Amino acid sequence: MSIVPMNPGQDDRSNTTAAEAGTSAPDETLAERAYRLIEDQIISLALPPGMRLTEQELASRLEIGRTPVREALQRLVNDGLVVVFPRKGIAVSVVNPLDVLMALEVRTVLERLLAGGAARRVGPQARSELAALAEQLAAAAEAGDHDRFVELDRFVFRRLGEIASNPFLVRALAPLEAMARRARYYFLRNDDLAEPARLHRAMIEHVVAGDSAAAEGASEALMDYLRGGIKRTVVGM
């Protein structure tokens, strides 16, 4: 079963028919598509930290015009994923572990609000979708499929945001969540996925049960695990 996030604010009872991740949503602009594709390549390290490019090179790589690429890059600069050098092109930002850890401190607080809000507003269809996501996360972990696990983690974040129905919270979290996904690729790609899958399941189960306090606690435990894993990796480098 493929779980695809709904649009923010969409009724929980609606059917989700969007395409699998990596395809364009029907109402997606070229700038939004460029943003999504560039962000995905930065997060997955297909565009590695420190890599230098020009707008034209990115436009050719994505087969999208320079204007939407330029708009996407402006957003990515604000997200901290890209650095612009006037008249010299752009560079993918480096991964600074201290920056990642500071961002995780903020994300921990916001993720608690997200999980708690979702638990208070979860409906029948969302319960079914979240339960399916938990199963898919467990399957990806068992298979050692890191790419799929990170993709599903993003789906969980988006679905919780839709359920919580707080667009301000989602917008505040989005760049922090993207930074954390890139950190997982950079620092934790070879880690065993069993424990994060267990922590995701615990959080999802509390959201499904409508237990906001327990969902908040489980969310914080997940952030603590990610923070600890990054610290261990940095010490061992």
Mean pLDDT: 88
Number of helices: 9
Q: What is the total number of structural domains?
A: 2
**What class do helices, strands and sheet pairing give?**
mainly alpha
The helix-strand sequence is: HEHHEEHHHHHH
Q: Give the CATH architecture of the largest domain.
A: Up-down Bundle
Sequence of strands across the biggest β-sheet: 1-3-2
Q: Report the count of strand segments.
A: 3
Task: Please give the largest β-sheet.
Answer: 3 strands, antiparallel
Distance between the termini: 39 Å
Low-confidence stretches: 1-22
Q: What fraction of residues sit in β-strands?
A: under 5%
Radius of gyration: 18 Å
Could you name the CATH topology of the largest domain? Four Helix Bundle (Hemerythrin (Met), subunit A)
The shape, in one word, is globular
Q: Which class of the largest domain in CATH terms?
A: Mainly Alpha
CATH H-level name of the largest domain... which superfamily? GntR ligand-binding domain-like
Helix content range: 55-70%
Description:
There is one protein chain. By secondary structure, the protein is mainly alpha-helical. It is 69% helix and 4% strand. The protein has helices at residues 30-43, 55-62, 66-79, 97-121, 124-143, 146-164, 167-188, 194-209, 212-236; strands at residues 52-53, 82-85, 89-92. The protein has a three-stranded antiparallel sheet. The radius of gyration is 18 Å and the shape is globular.
Main attributes of the structure:
237 residues, mainly alpha, Four Helix Bundle (Hemerythrin (Met), subunit A), disordered N terminus, 9 helices
